[in-house]
Amino acid sequence: MVRLFRLHSKIVFGRLAPVGVTQGQPRILHYLTEHDGCIQKDISCQNDLEPATVTNSLAVMERAGFIRRKDSADDRRILHVFITDKGREAYAASNRTFAEVEAVAFRGFSAKEREQALTYLGRLYDNLRS
Q1: Do strands 38-39 and 67-71 pair parallel, antiparallel, or not at all (unpaired)?
Q2: Are 40 and 50 in contact (CB under 8 A)?
Q3: Domains in the chain: how many in total?
Q4: What's the DSSP call for residue 20?
Q5: SS3 of residue 35 by DSSP
Q6: Model confidence over 23-51: pLDDT tens digits?
Q7: Residue 45 Cα to chain centre, angstroms
Q8: How far apart are CA 43 and CA 24, in angstroms?
Q9: Are the C-beta atoms of 15 and 95 separated by less than 8 Å?
């Protein structure tokens, strides 16, 4: 599993390097496409990420122009996070790349085998998460 994960990451993020997307960012970009304007704490809680990790990732993403943060009108300790057009483009590039790599990874698998493999991976994830 470790070898598979490392190879997958190497391929995916090698392809995303020209776009400027790094590990951890696609998950945050995905969350923001569905929860634009959310607070950092929500990103952390909903994505199983440490708050410090989210803070660091968002700083990098803001410098890259993928997101913008804005102080809350009600509480200046809270920052709302918004995805930018550039962030949406990076998210789309990430989705295309993940789909391309997944197609290669499942080459030669029947539809049933692919479905079973994804089911097993989901179960492994659930087991480790609990």
Answers
A1: unpaired
A2: no
A3: 1
A4: T
A5: coil
A6: 999 999 999 999 999 999 999 999 989 99
A7: 14
A8: 12
A9: no
32 residue type, one letter? L
- What tokens appear for 99 in the block? 């789909």
Q: How far apart are CA 44 and CA 53, in angstroms?
A: 8
Structure tokens at 8: 């997958």
Q: Which domain holds residue 8?
A: 2-129
Q: For residue 72, what pLDDT band results from cuts at 50, 70 and 90?
A: confident
Distance CA 1, CA 59 (A): 31
Structure tokens at 107: 């080459």
Alpha helices in the chain (DSSP H): 2-16, 25-34, 40-46, 51-64, 85-105, 111-129
Contact 88, 98 (CB under 8 A): no
Which residue shows structure tokens 């483009």? Answer: 89
pTM for this predicted structure? 0.86
Cβ atoms of residues 72 and 57 within 8 Å: no
From the DSSP assignment, how many helices (H) and strands (E) are in the chain? 6, 3
The closest of 61, 62, 78, 79 to 70, measured between CA atoms, is: 79
Per the structure block, which two tokens stand in for 100? 């391309």
Domain at 109, CATH number: 1.10.10.10
